[in-house]
Amino acid sequence: xxxxxxxxxxxxxxxxxxxxxxxxxxxxxxxxxxxxxxxxxxxxxxxxxxxxxxxxxxxxxxxxxxxxxxxxxxxxxxxxxxxxxxxxxxxxxxxxxxxxxxxxxxxxxxxxxxxxxxxxxxxxxxxxxxxxxxxxxxxxxxxxxxxxxxxxxxxxxxxxxxxxxxxxxxxxxxxxxxxxxxxxxxxxxxxxxxxxxxxxxxxxxxxxxxxxxxxxxxxxxxxxxxxxxxxxxxxxxxxxxxxxxxxxxxxxxxxxxxxxxxxxxxxxxxxxxxxxxxxxxxxxxxxxxxxxxxxxxxxxxxxxxxxxxxxxxxxxxxxxxxxxxxxxxxxxxxxxxxxxxxxx
Length: 344
Ligand code: AFP
Hints:
This protein has 7 helices and 15 strands. It is an alpha+beta fold. The protein has 2 domains: 7-185, Fructose-1,6-Bisphosphatase, Chain A, domain 1; 196-336, D-Maltodextrin-Binding Protein, domain 2 (3-Layer(aba) Sandwich).
C-alpha cells in the first residue's frame, strides 16, 4: 500500500466484489465518516456547546454519560443505519440496536472512549469491532478471534484511524484540507523490548499478587530481575495507550482487582478488549487476561467486562507466567514493606 493511499481506496481494494467484505468495508467507511464529524465537534469543544458535563444519565455499566458520549453515539448510529447490519452494540446503549437479521455483519463500538478526559482537553477515541452475523446464533456470541475487522480512532493532535481487516495493521491520518483519511503507516509492528508499562498505580492495594509482582519487577529497574529501568505512563484513555504501544511498544494493564465490580477490571469485552486485542495481535503483540488469550473469550452479555493486558509479547508473556506460576516471581527482597514498594 503506498503512503497517502486513502482509506476509502484501501477498503475498496480489500472488498473487491466479495459480498461479506463489501459489508465490512461499508461499515468501516460509515464509522470513518462519522469520526470526521466527531473530530470536528471535539475540536470545537465549548465553542460547539460541548461541556463534558454529565447528562444526569448513566450507561449500562453505570458510567456517567457526558454530553459528548451521547452525541457521538448518535452520530455513529446514524452513519451505520445507512448500511446493512444485523445488530449494533454500543457502550452507550443498554440494549442492542437491531437491524436486518439476514445482514452479513454486526458492529460493536465504544463511541467515545476516555470521555472523562473531555473537559481536560485530553485525547479520546472511538473503538469498533466488526463481526460476522450467523443466522440462528445470538449476535456477538462468538469468540473474539472471529472478528472480521477492528479499529479505533484517536482524536488527538492528529485524528488517526488504526485499522486491521485481518492482514496486519495500517494507520490513516485525517487530512483536514479535504477531509479524507490518508495512510501514514502500513503493516505496523509493535517494538518488542520497550521498557515501558501503563497501569493505574492507585489501585495497587487491590491488585492480585502476580500484577504486584510484575510492577515490582519493573520498579526494581536495573537493580532488579529485569536488569533495566522502566518508564511508566497512565493516560486514562485506552486509545491513547494503544496508539503509543503501536508506536513504541510497552505493555498496558487493566487487570481485575478486588474492588467491588472490578473482578474483571473496567474494560468491556465486546467493544474495548476484543477490538484492541485484535489490533495488537495483528501488529505482532500479545493480549491476555493474565491467564488466557483475550481473543479466545466469547461474551455472555453485551456489556461484560474482561481484564486486558496488551502490548509487547515478552511483557505479556511474563505477566502470564507470573499468573500461572507464582514461584516465578523474582522479587524476594521487598524494597519497602511486605513484598512491595508500597506498604500494603
Ligand atoms: P471513560 O471512558 O469513562 O473515561 O473510561 C476510560 C477507560 O475505559 C479507558 O479508556 C481507560 O484506559 C480507563 O477507563 C481508565 O480507567 P481508570 O479511570 O480507572 O484509570
